[in-house]
Amino acid sequence: MSELALHIERLPRMHVATVRAVSATPEKDAWQKLRAWAEPRGLLRQPKLHPVFGFNNPGPAPGHSAYGYEFWIRVDPHSHPAGDVELKEFPGGLYAVTTCRLVSDPAGPLGEVWRRLWDQVQAGPYRWRRTHELEHPHDPLATDAVMVLDLYLPIEPCETPPEPPPSDPQGDPDAA
């Protein structure tokens, strides 16, 4: 199978409004909460200014149908949360990014695209950085059938081991 098209992107520090749901359908449930808060404020009409990101929190566990999903939307630092909405500071960071469709992507199901992104990054000059992987919908109001996502895998450059000091045959009486 061919490699995924990916690029490296540094997300900036940003203020985000966040909601989370834990259920058998947490993406849907958390989205309903975020939409109910963000839509009346006009935030969803400007996806470039107010991008939406989501991630599992906590992730699925074998034998349990319920898991968590958290949505973030970039907001002004002076925004006022209400209800289940909280404000957080996202520190930003370096990410490997690829794009896929939520359903019927030629690269495979969403979980397979995530696995391929992981494998491809690990084979290069970066490694995974311990923080949330992010899913960014291009149009958060799109239906699942046409939803396009950017998948953000947190990364950091691999540390290269220090080179051994050069051997000095003149300083080593055993060398020769």
TrEMBL record:
Region (Disordered) location: 156-176
Ranges where the AraC effector-binding domain occurs: 4-156
InterPro entries reported in the protein's UniProt record: AraC_E-bd (IPR010499), Cass2 (IPR029441), Reg_factor_effector_dom_sf (IPR011256)
UniProt-listed SMART domains: AraC_E_bind
Source organism, top-level taxon: Bacteria
Compositionally biased intervals (Pro residues): 159-168
Pfam families assigned: Cass2
Protein name as it appears in the record: Transcription activator effector binding
